[in-house]
Amino acid sequence: MNENAIRQSLAVKTDGLTKRYGSGITAVDSLDLSVRRGEVYGFLGPNGAGKTTTLRMLLGLIRPTSGTAEVLGESPGSEAGLSKVGSLVESPAFYPYLSGRDNLKVMARYSGAPRVRIDEALSQVELSGRARDKYKKYSLGMKQRLGVAAALLKDPDLLILDEPTNGLDPRGMADMRGLIRELGRGERTVLLSSHLLGEVEQICNRVGVIQKGKLVAEGTVAELRGRQGLAIRAEPVEEALEIAKRLAGVEEVRASDGILHLVTDPERAAEINAKLVSAGLRVSEMRPAGQSLEEVFLELTGGEAV
Ligand SMILES: Nc1ncnc2c1ncn2[C@@H]1O[C@H](COP(=O)(O)OP(=O)(O)OP(=O)(O)O)[C@@H](O)[C@H]1O
Q: Where does the ABC transporter domain start and stop, copy by copy (predicted)?
């Protein structure tokens, strides 16, 4: 693909995107992000990593200090770009005494979205049955779904959601995850931020991991977890560690709680077992062990938990 074709296949592309706040904080630091059209992309990072700041720049709500961003081939905040982007970045200010439907009516009038979209959007977020109830009667999950409905009014090609499950109870979170998966089917691109690994793992095709404003990894969940290996219980463990380090085809070895963790092809279990046993070690357990995304994440972000 030439450069132009690559650009067209991307829903979001940033080059060296940087935001510094007055107080000397670099919230986003030379970020190169690429979100492909049609995918559900998870923007994952601990609190304060710079996710919201990035999304606000993509929406043209704040200006980058340096670097550039393209959203559906347009510059952020331009009229052409905004007409194809729906977002839930700050909780929209809904009127508590109006129904969900009337709130959307007000918003549709304000944003110029066609009226027919109101019922479609309500149905998409499964609020049709409660559309005539007052907003203040809604549960938190329903309020959040109405926010998504508002973002869907323009039937956007790109949906940007900032921590869409934040504050919801487990049921509300599961509903929201199901909804996002549904919305991401087909042509629409969804970019969502989250500090929850499990969530991103369940919904997203690809993930970008951000820490202290920098992108530390980007790839599919499978790619990020791709480091397969073996967990081995062998004694004495220090000796086993030394021998394992010298084995060909073993990329990495570490020991924790008396178990050796080898990054290697799990198919090599029998061969590695034979080598350890012939060196006089007692091997009592050997099993394939992929790294969990959590381990990968902790490694990538230098141990900063989420
Ligand atoms: N308006 C602002 N002025 C000064 N500093 C800010 C401002 N907004 C954000 N920051 C700082 O920038 C950094 C990144 O914040 P940001 O909200 O983008 O992170 P985040 O990953 O979205 O985190 P969270 O999930 O907690 O919202 C933080 O250190 C934050 O304190």
A: 12-237
What is the whole-number distance in angstroms between the Cα of residue 82 and the centre of ligand 1? 23
Residue whose Cα lies nearest atom 23 of ligand 1: it is 48
pLDDT of res. 304: 60
Q: Give the residue among 111, 163, 119, 167 at the shortest CA–CA distance from 139.
A: 167
Instruction: Report how far ligand 1's centroid is from the alpha carbon of 54 (Å).
Output: 10
Pairing mode, strands 85-88 and 158-162 = parallel
Q: What is the pLDDT of residues 84-117, one digit of tens each?
A: 999 999 777 899 999 999 999 999 998 888 888 9
The CATH number of 3-224 is: 3.40.50.300
Candidates 28, 53, 91, 197: which one to mutate for ligand 1, based on the most atoms within 8 Å of Cβ?
53
Neighbours of 70 (CB within 10 A): 18
- The CATH homologous superfamily of the domain defined by 227-290: YebC, transcriptional regulation domain (3.30.70.980)
- Global pTM reads 0.81
- Interface predicted TM-score of the whole assembly (ipTM), two decimals: 0.94
